[in-house]
Design brief:
alpha/beta; Ribosomal Protein L25, Chain P; 3 domains; 7-stranded mixed sheet; 25% helix; elongated
């Protein structure tokens, strides 16, 4: 069945049918360098770059760097790293600050056309005159300044002769417009802040709405694709372009799509900053964060994020995508690429009393059943093992298919064992489990006993050969699907107190040569990524479980 095209592609298709030159198609991804990219940006990145690939069109990476107060080169570098990690290449790396000279000249042109004026009121007074969605705003007392006076004042703003907030440049549109964005928006303000690129060359900075459309025009972007919150801005986008007419080159077209809203997540940069500042998380790349850098450390792959965006689709209306779809996407990919290993994260000692003391043997297990060509891995076996504490009960009902006294289970890739007795600590907790084994039941051998069926299989590692590891077991950062939906409740009150557990575990010695960033499936436990190696100790982050553990919550 042929896959349908989304409504953005339908718009482009209609433009081409109406005679638009395919060679003139051009797209851009325009992040503001005031934070790191998050899962919502992945949708916009994929949309623009995939359209570029489909139509053989170029895609620019343009940083809308108009606010030196919040912007930083580290964010620029982080954004580029994230896009490269996703596997995309941009045609040109550009900055809104590249166009400051042209934007300044065009601002003078607006003044000359009596479409802009310098307002000498403070921001509070200007805001009070805006009106409401049902009530018109009121004109500034400075709205009818002469062209000469406006040009003189604006030039003086540029030369640094005024304090911050003393004057602003506003577009002269319509204070009675039903679209409040058209009620004489501010397009320039005075800021004595060093810019990460232009340094101290400028002390006036253009606002986003004034900068965005004109930057698209300069770069000859054919389709300026924005999320739905920018739909009211489209009138302003077009008004600015109309005001600069006659335009000799192709005029860009803004179109909007629904942003990616993900359950159990917040993506507001302000709220992400707050999580970091209040120490709820450990920085932008904390694996509980929805940032691309956080997802990367968590173990998500570029392929899984792209698949998730594809499954979520490009919609016209806002909707909430369940986090389980993202987790499904990463499981699907990690299942294919991840080697299987055995690890124990909540260990209890198990002794096989009839296994020869001081004896070892080497068993074999699949590296990845999805890739049989990878062959087998070597697994050492001996008399004393660790198993998961929850894989044993002294007494259990018929539905408990793991180890219990008097019943048999199979040790993964090894032998069938039977629980015989336990040794307890003074507090009554189990210290050691005593078992016997069937020597003829070795997995993969030719004996009939090896083919004997038992209902349970559990994983294990040898005490003698296993590596000690540290594991960060992550869960969802928030305990409710929409933590920021109620404006009366602080979103931080919904933080999941169990979102991070640090445990010490044990793993097969085959991972002694593993490298940072390697993915693994810890059999029966989930998918994990090797996050770091400190003093030869392996530190893993849990990516996701083998199944959706939240589906029944």
């Amino acid at each position: 069945m042929k896959k349908g095209i989304n409504f953005i592609e339908q718009i482009i298709k209609q433009d081409l049918l109406k005679g638009f030159n395919k060679k003139a198609l051009k797209f851009r991804f325009p992040p503001e360098p005031n934070g790191y990219l998050h899962i919502g940006h992945v949708k916009a990145i994929c949309l623009n770059f995939n359209l570029g690939e489909k139509y053989g069109a170029s895609v620019n990476l343009r940083f809308d760097d108009t606010n030196p107060v919040k912007e930083d080169k580290k964010f620029v570098d982080g954004i580029k790293e994230d896009i490269n990690w996703l596997g995309y290449k941009w045609k040109e790396e550009l900055y809104a600050s590249d166009y400051f000279e042209q934007l300044y000249k065009w601002a003078h042109l607006l003044i000359e056309k009596e479409l802009a004026y310098v307002d000498s009121q403070d921001s509070e007074k200007i805001a009070s005159q805006k009106g409401t969605p049902t009530k018109s705003g009121s004109n500034s007392p400075y709205r009818n300044r002469s062209v000469e006076e406006n040009k003189k004042l604006f030039t003086s703003m540029f030369k640094g002769k005024f304090k911050e907030g003393e004057h602003v440049l506003r577009a002269k549109i319509d204070m009675a417009s039903p679209n409040m964005l058209l009620r004489d928006p501010v397009i320039y303000r005075v800021l004595y802040r060093e810019h990460h690129r232009t340094k101290n060359k400028w002390c006036i900075y253009p606002l986003y709405d004034w900068t965005h459309g004109q930057s698209d025009y300069i770069e000859q972007i054919s389709h300026s694709l924005c999320t739905l919150e920018f739909k009211p801005h489209r009138d302003l986008y077009d008004w600015f372009l109309d005001s600069l007419a006659p335009l000799k080159k192709m005029r860009p077209k803004q179109r909007e799509f629904a942003r990616l809203n993900l359950s159990y997540t917040v993506t507001s940069k302000r709220k992400l900053f707050e999580l970091i500042e209040k120490k709820y998380v450990n920085g932008w790349d904390d694996p509980r964060m929805p940032t691309i850098s956080g997802l990367r450390r968590r173990g998500y792959t570029p392929e899984s994020l792209k698949k998730f965006v594809e499954l979520a689709g490009i919609a016209k209306r806002e909707n909430l995508i369940d986090l389980s779809l993202l987790e499904f996407s990463v499981r699907e990919h990690l299942n294919i690429i991840s080697p299987r290993v055995m690890a124990v994260l909540n260990p209890v000692k198990l002794i096989i009393i009839n296994y020869p003391e001081n004896s070892d043997e080497i068993l074999e297990g699949e590296i990845n059943p999805e890739k049989p060509e990878l062959g087998k891995r070597k697994i050492p076996f001996s008399r004393e093992l660790y198993i998961e504490r929850e894989d044993f009960k002294e007494e259990a009902n018929r539905k408990f298919y793991r180890l219990t006294l008097g019943k048999e289970v199979r040790l993964k890739n090894a032998y069938i064992i039977k629980g015989e007795s336990v040794i307890k600590n003074n507090d009554g907790t189990i210290k050691e489990i005593i078992c016997s084994y069937d020597p003829k039941s070795k997995s993969g051998s030719d004996s009939e006993e090896s083919k004997r069926k038992v209902k349970g299989t559990i994983h294990w590692v040898t005490i003698k050969h296993s590596l000690v590891i540290d594991v960060n077991v992550y869960d969802r950062l928030f305990s409710v699907p929409s933590p920021d939906s109620d404006k009366e409740i602080d979103f931080k009150s919904f933080i999941n107190s169990e979102s991070l557990k640090k445990v010490k575990g044990y793993i097969e010695p085959s991972l002694s040569t593993a490298s940072k960033g390697d993915h693994f499936q810890f059999q029966r436990l989930g998918y994990f990524i090797l996050d770091n190696i400190i003093n030869k100790k392996l530190i893993f982050n849990k990516t996701v479980g083998l199944r959706d553990s939240w589906s029944k919550k």
